[in-house]
Amino acid sequence: xxxxxxxxxxxxxxxxxxxxxxGAADTIADAPLLLADDEPVGPEPKDRxxxxxxxxxxxxxxxxxxxxxxxxxxILAFAMLxxxxxxxxxxxxxxxxxxxxxxxxx
Length: 106
Description:
The protein is mainly α.
Protein backbone atom coordinates (compact mmCIF):
# COMPACT_ATOMS: atom_id res chain seq x y z
CA UNK A 1 0.00 0.00 0.00
CA UNK A 2 2.85 2.37 0.88
CA UNK A 3 4.61 1.60 -2.42
CA UNK A 4 1.47 2.50 -4.37
CA UNK A 5 1.15 5.80 -2.49
CA UNK A 6 4.81 6.66 -3.13
CA UNK A 7 4.41 5.84 -6.82
CA UNK A 8 1.34 8.07 -7.09
CA UNK A 9 3.13 10.89 -5.25
CA UNK A 10 6.12 10.58 -7.59
CA UNK A 11 3.90 10.69 -10.67
CA UNK A 12 2.04 13.73 -9.32
CA UNK A 13 5.33 15.51 -8.61
CA UNK A 14 6.69 14.76 -12.08
CA UNK A 15 3.51 16.02 -13.76
CA UNK A 16 2.98 19.11 -11.59
CA UNK A 17 6.63 20.23 -11.48
CA UNK A 18 6.91 21.63 -15.03
CA UNK A 19 3.58 23.43 -14.72
CA UNK A 20 4.65 25.12 -11.49
CA UNK A 21 8.00 26.07 -13.01
CA UNK A 22 6.27 27.55 -16.06
CA GLY A 23 4.04 29.66 -13.82
CA ALA A 24 7.03 30.91 -11.84
CA ALA A 25 8.82 31.90 -15.04
CA ASP A 26 5.81 33.98 -16.14
CA THR A 27 5.79 35.96 -12.91
CA ILE A 28 9.53 36.67 -13.21
CA ALA A 29 9.17 37.81 -16.84
CA ASP A 30 6.37 40.24 -15.90
CA ALA A 31 8.53 42.04 -13.31
CA PRO A 32 9.74 45.50 -14.39
CA LEU A 33 13.40 45.98 -15.24
CA LEU A 34 15.12 48.52 -13.04
CA LEU A 35 18.25 48.94 -15.16
CA ALA A 36 18.81 48.45 -18.85
CA ASP A 37 21.86 46.47 -19.87
CA ASP A 38 23.34 49.08 -22.21
CA GLU A 39 23.17 52.11 -19.92
CA PRO A 40 26.25 53.04 -17.90
CA VAL A 41 25.86 52.78 -14.14
CA GLY A 42 27.67 56.02 -13.32
CA PRO A 43 29.56 58.84 -14.93
CA GLU A 44 32.30 58.09 -17.40
CA PRO A 45 35.63 57.76 -15.60
CA LYS A 46 38.17 60.49 -16.28
CA ASP A 47 41.81 60.04 -17.01
CA ARG A 48 43.89 59.74 -13.86
CA UNK A 49 46.23 62.59 -14.80
CA UNK A 50 43.56 65.06 -15.96
CA UNK A 51 43.63 68.49 -14.30
CA UNK A 52 40.02 68.48 -13.06
CA UNK A 53 40.05 64.92 -11.74
CA UNK A 54 39.70 65.06 -7.94
CA UNK A 55 41.38 61.65 -7.62
CA UNK A 56 44.58 63.02 -9.13
CA UNK A 57 46.15 63.75 -5.74
CA UNK A 58 45.21 60.41 -4.23
CA UNK A 59 48.02 57.93 -3.80
CA UNK A 60 48.23 54.22 -3.19
CA UNK A 61 46.42 53.03 -6.30
CA UNK A 62 49.51 51.71 -8.03
CA UNK A 63 49.56 48.13 -9.14
CA UNK A 64 51.08 46.00 -6.40
CA UNK A 65 51.21 42.87 -8.50
CA UNK A 66 54.85 43.33 -9.49
CA UNK A 67 55.94 43.89 -5.90
CA UNK A 68 54.03 40.81 -4.76
CA UNK A 69 55.44 38.61 -7.52
CA UNK A 70 59.01 39.75 -6.82
CA UNK A 71 58.66 39.17 -3.08
CA UNK A 72 57.11 35.74 -3.63
CA UNK A 73 59.92 34.79 -6.01
CA UNK A 74 62.60 35.81 -3.51
CA ILE A 75 60.89 33.98 -0.65
CA LEU A 76 60.51 30.81 -2.71
CA ALA A 77 64.11 31.01 -3.94
CA PHE A 78 65.35 31.40 -0.35
CA ALA A 79 63.22 28.46 0.83
CA MET A 80 64.51 26.34 -2.04
CA LEU A 81 68.12 27.26 -1.22
CA UNK A 82 67.64 26.38 2.47
CA UNK A 83 66.03 23.06 1.52
CA UNK A 84 68.84 22.25 -0.88
CA UNK A 85 71.49 22.99 1.75
CA UNK A 86 69.65 20.81 4.26
CA UNK A 87 69.32 17.94 1.80
CA UNK A 88 72.98 18.07 0.78
CA UNK A 89 74.16 18.25 4.39
CA UNK A 90 71.92 15.34 5.42
CA UNK A 91 73.15 13.31 2.45
CA UNK A 92 76.75 14.00 3.41
CA UNK A 93 76.20 13.18 7.09
CA UNK A 94 74.13 10.03 6.54
CA UNK A 95 75.45 8.53 3.30
CA UNK A 96 78.71 9.98 2.09
CA UNK A 97 80.40 10.65 5.42
CA UNK A 98 83.83 9.02 5.76
CA UNK A 99 83.48 5.96 7.92
CA UNK A 100 85.55 5.62 11.07
CA UNK A 101 87.38 2.52 12.09
CA UNK A 102 86.11 0.73 15.18
CA UNK A 103 89.34 1.46 17.04
CA UNK A 104 88.78 5.23 16.81
CA UNK A 105 91.41 6.11 14.21
CA UNK A 106 90.33 8.25 11.31
